[in-house]
Amino acid sequence: MRSWIVWATGLLAYIVAVLDRTTLGVSGLQAADRFDASPSVLSTFVVLQVIVYAGAQVPAGLLLDRFGSRTLIAGGAALMATGQLVLAVTESLPVAIAARAVVGLGDAFTFISVLRLVPHWFAPRRVPLVTQLTGICGQLGQVLSAVPFFAVLTAFGWTPAYISVAAIGVLSIVLTVLLVRNTPDGRATESAVSLRETLASVKTVWLRPGTRLGFFTHMGTQFSVTVFALMWGVPYLTVAQGLSPTGAGMMLTLSVVTAIAAGVVIGILTGRFPHRRSRLVLTIVISNALIWSVVLALPSPAPLWLLVLLVVIISVGGPGSMVGFDFARTFNPGATLGTASGMVNMGGFTASLLVMQAMGVVLDHAGGYSFDAFRLAWTVQYAVWALAVVGILITRHKARRLMRLEQESMLLEGFRTQPETQR
């Protein structure tokens, strides 16, 4: 029971992090009015946040391997609450952008720290499923931003909405300090590692094919739904596709529900068929590209059923990206798992920030928010899908070859240690 309490408290911190991450996505039009921002400037809010998030992944992983989950979860929550509070009261564009960067930094500490709790508190057979549950249940934060946060924003305005989010962050800090422990025996890390050894491990971790396979897995599966939820989904659905703000919010809620259902299935499949994980990932990436191709090929707004199908299919990419962390866990020892997880997490968010910024530039040059401008802007996704597929195929081959060599070496070593009478 204690393991579930620790995990649930960490999960709450991650839910709050996703809420903080996605608030600007549903308040983008209000932010444009409040700060008098063009589409490209507005995208800078989220892009800088994601740049900080992605850039902090490896340092966060190193800190996690050294200090453990509890410290980083509480510290991340404090940074995010501070950033949201500043954003609530400021009307200065530079200050607001800096506040979003602080939110991104706090967000960077949270997810991989919660994931680090899972192998310490649960049996190995449960780890893939609980890992999936962490990722998909965390997306409830997106529901909180799309429904109650958006309702408070609409009814009471910008400042009360963002102050309420900051208050939830403070609650998360208190619960983390009271309830979370890094391991059942309280240790922060599995072994005492010097700072020099920790820094030297970065190159070693990246050179493991399984780490890079996780990186490209995360990149190819996650970025499309992240861009949709964080920045351009609501403007696209309301302006280009003609949905009401309420309808757009329901689409984001559908995205979360889909991710939860798909995550349970993916968690079970990856646990039972670990050697088929990369095939599952490639299927998700290709299905994302195909559904966007169908929608973008239409010369006019898509019918509602097709938009629903689009949201459902791209939302599977969220739990699909969690397979990348499973690759990291499989091919890395526990002492460097935080660093490996940080590297994997960079994949999708690096791709997301590049696509978000590129879309903002395309929208500016295409004349602003319109059906044709969005239709053109979404095509920048195809370059990322192509890169991710190539990366998955190459690193999968290298990881499989390394695994075979290790298995052959173990068999040979076992043969050599056998008494001669047993050979």
From TrEMBL:
<feature type="transmembrane region" description="Helical">
    <location>
        <begin position="280"/>
        <end position="298"/>
    </location>
</feature>
<keyword id="KW-0812">Transmembrane</keyword>
<dbReference type="Pfam" id="PF07690">
    <property type="entry name" value="MFS_1"/>
</dbReference>
<feature type="transmembrane region" description="Helical">
    <location>
        <begin position="41"/>
        <end position="64"/>
    </location>
</feature>
<dbReference type="InterPro" id="IPR050189">
    <property type="entry name" value="MFS_Efflux_Transporters"/>
</dbReference>
<feature type="transmembrane region" description="Helical">
    <location>
        <begin position="71"/>
        <end position="89"/>
    </location>
</feature>
<keyword id="KW-0472">Membrane</keyword>
<feature type="transmembrane region" description="Helical">
    <location>
        <begin position="337"/>
        <end position="356"/>
    </location>
</feature>
<feature type="transmembrane region" description="Helical">
    <location>
        <begin position="213"/>
        <end position="234"/>
    </location>
</feature>
<dbReference type="InterPro" id="IPR011701">
    <property type="entry name" value="MFS"/>
</dbReference>
<feature type="transmembrane region" description="Helical">
    <location>
        <begin position="376"/>
        <end position="395"/>
    </location>
</feature>
<keyword id="KW-1003">Cell membrane</keyword>
<dbReference type="InterPro" id="IPR036259">
    <property type="entry name" value="MFS_trans_sf"/>
</dbReference>
<feature type="domain" description="Major facilitator superfamily (MFS) profile">
    <location>
        <begin position="6"/>
        <end position="400"/>
    </location>
</feature>
<feature type="transmembrane region" description="Helical">
    <location>
        <begin position="304"/>
        <end position="325"/>
    </location>
</feature>
<feature type="transmembrane region" description="Helical">
    <location>
        <begin position="246"/>
        <end position="268"/>
    </location>
</feature>
<keyword id="KW-1133">Transmembrane helix</keyword>
<feature type="transmembrane region" description="Helical">
    <location>
        <begin position="95"/>
        <end position="118"/>
    </location>
</feature>
<dbReference type="GO" id="GO:0005886">
    <property type="term" value="C:plasma membrane"/>
</dbReference>
<dbReference type="GO" id="GO:0022857">
    <property type="term" value="F:transmembrane transporter activity"/>
</dbReference>
<feature type="transmembrane region" description="Helical">
    <location>
        <begin position="161"/>
        <end position="180"/>
    </location>
</feature>
<feature type="transmembrane region" description="Helical">
    <location>
        <begin position="130"/>
        <end position="155"/>
    </location>
</feature>
<protein>
    <submittedName>
        <fullName>Major Facilitator Superfamily protein</fullName>
    </submittedName>
</protein>
<dbReference type="InterPro" id="IPR020846">
    <property type="entry name" value="MFS_dom"/>
</dbReference>
